[in-house]
């Protein structure tokens, strides 16, 4: 039998699941103990006490109904009635007797009624309207006799005292356990918050704490974060150093080519320009995720500036949608570079581009669409890899780079805890590139 359907009703958070694990057994135990106490202990005690009162009522009924003068016999029983603590009254034979009255939630009252009715005494009516008195009307040899006695004669003084005590101490111990559990879970939530922030490109202070296992996981996370930061720093320094070193010979080559005949030097100039673009993309790739610190940024205003700059440069770019309000923790320069790369890529292979921004409570989406040839679905995963050129000849003819444009965008999106999604544009028919970042 599969229990996967239970996952739908399970809490998603660690606090919720830990609370359920803590509270559910306590509730089940209280329910079982309460039912056992109600069905066995409480009802057994009530039955025994009711049988004692029943024998006294039977004795009174036999003494009164068998006497020639019931009133005189009842008066003679007065000293015993005081001992029994029972008030007895003779009713006329034609007296209208009210029906039974037992509250539905009164467990002990139901046990009293079952005990008194399950005997030879002809009980006509049993009324337990409250916790003070019990009224019983019985018929003996045609004589109606009314018995009135204290409720404590047939039920315990505080029948639910044990249950109330258990509930109180269960709530108290559950609260104490929850406070202790919260202190134990707090280091785990801090570790999760630090890991989530690092996945979004933010470094928050974190010190391992808590149990031994949590401390070990926290120390491993700090070591991993330090290694990743060193790797990114080394990659940035290496690419930047190589790119800067290549600029010097390129500059000399440009000067030498300028002294040659323009017709003879034209092919070499194109090669040098291609190398210059390669170096520029190396620098962009190296700086892609290391430009500035995360800060609160209005993504709509940032994208508006990118579109406005492109429009001033005469490029056919329009902002078609900008929905949502609020700010997001972003590296503005890196996001700006990513949007500019997508716009440049769209105009390189298409005639126009459309940009949209959608900001919700859970995510930020920046979309760039074009009317170009697009990218086939089977090649989209390859397109975001560094130095991947799906069509080198086409890139060269249209002033393309070396296959780092989409890789830079993907790297920037991942540094913000998001991703780059490529699909087909329904509006323009070309490529649709979405930068999706969680808030």
Automatic annotation (TrEMBL):
EC numbers: 2.7.13.3
Entry keyword annotation includes Nucleotide-binding: yes
PROSITE patterns: HAMP, HIS_KIN
Membrane topology: Multi-pass membrane protein
Keywords, comma-separated and alphabetical: ATP-binding, Cell inner membrane, Cell membrane, Kinase, Membrane, Nucleotide-binding, Phosphoprotein, Transferase, Transmembrane, Transmembrane helix, Two-component regulatory system
Catalyzed reactions per annotation: ATP + protein L-histidine = ADP + protein N-phospho-L-histidine
GO MF term (any one): phosphorelay sensor kinase activity
Main subcellular location of this protein, as a coarse class: membrane
All residue ranges annotated as the Histidine kinase domain in the record: 241-439
Limits of the HAMP domain: 182-233
GO CC field: plasma membrane
A Pfam cross-reference name: HAMP
Compartment annotation: Cell inner membrane
Transmembrane regions listed in the UniProt entry: 162-181
InterPro entries recorded: 2C_sensor_his_kinase, HAMP_dom, HATPase_C_sf, HATPase_dom, His_kinase_dom, HisK_dim/P_dom, HisK_dim/P_sf, Sig_transdc_His_kin-like_C
Superkingdom in the source lineage: Bacteria
PANTHER family associated with the record: SENSOR HISTIDINE KINASE ENVZ, SENSOR PROTEIN CREC
Protein name: histidine kinase
Source organism of the structure: Seohaeicola zhoushanensis
């Amino acid at each position: 039998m599969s229990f996967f359907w239970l996952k739908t009703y399970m809490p998603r958070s660690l606090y919720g699941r830990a609370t359920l694990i803590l509270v559910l057994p306590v509730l089940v135990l209280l329910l079982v103990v309460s039912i056992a106490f109600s069905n066995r202990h409480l009802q057994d005690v009530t039955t025994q006490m009711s049988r004692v009162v029943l024998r006294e009522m039977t004795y009174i009924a036999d003494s009164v109904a068998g006497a020639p003068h019931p009133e005189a016999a009842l008066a003679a029983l007065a000293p015993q009635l005081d001992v029994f603590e029972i008030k007895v009254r003779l009713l006329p034979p034609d007296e209208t007797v009210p029906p039974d009255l037992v509250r539905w939630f009164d467990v002990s009252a139901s046990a009293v009624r079952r005990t008194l009715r399950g005997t030879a005494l002809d009980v006509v009516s049993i009324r337990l309207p409250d916790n003070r008195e019990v009224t019983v009307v019985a018929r003996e040899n045609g004589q109606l006799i009314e018995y009135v006695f204290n409720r404590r004669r047939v039920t315990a003084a505080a029948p639910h005292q044990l249950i109330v005590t258990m509930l109180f101490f269960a709530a108290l111990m559950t609260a104490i356990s929850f406070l202790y559990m919260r202190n134990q879970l707090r280091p785990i939530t801090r570790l999760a918050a630090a890991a989530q922030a690092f996945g979004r490109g933010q470094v928050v202070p974190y010190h391992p704490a808590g149990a031994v296992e949590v401390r070990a996981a926290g120390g491993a996370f700090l070591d991993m974060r330090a290694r990743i930061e060193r790797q990114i720093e080394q990659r940035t320094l290496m690419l930047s150093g190589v790119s800067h070193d290549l600029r010097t010979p390129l500059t000399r080559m440009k000067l030498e080519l300028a002294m040659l005949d323009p017709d003879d030097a034209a092919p070499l100039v194109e090669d040098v320009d291609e190398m210059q673009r390669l170096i520029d993309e190396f620098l962009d790739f190296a700086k892609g995720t290391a430009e500035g610190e995360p800060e609160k940024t209005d993504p709509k205003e940032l994208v508006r500036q990118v579109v406005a700059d492109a429009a001033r440069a005469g490029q056919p770019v329009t902002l078609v949608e900008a929905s949502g309000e609020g700010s997001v923790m972003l590296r503005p320069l890196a996001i700006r570079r990513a949007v500019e790369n997508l716009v440049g890529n769209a105009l390189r292979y298409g005639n126009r581009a459309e940009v949209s921004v959608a900001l919700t409570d859970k995510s930020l989406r920046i979309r760039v669409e074009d009317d170009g040839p697009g990218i086939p679905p089977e090649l989209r995963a390859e397109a975001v890899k560094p130095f991947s050129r799906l069509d080198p000849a086409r890139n060269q003819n249209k002033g393309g780079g070396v296959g780092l444009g989409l890789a830079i965008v993907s790297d920037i999106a991942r540094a913000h805890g998001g991703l780059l999604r490529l699909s087909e544009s329904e509006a323009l028919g070309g490529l649709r590139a979405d930068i999706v970042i969680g808030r």
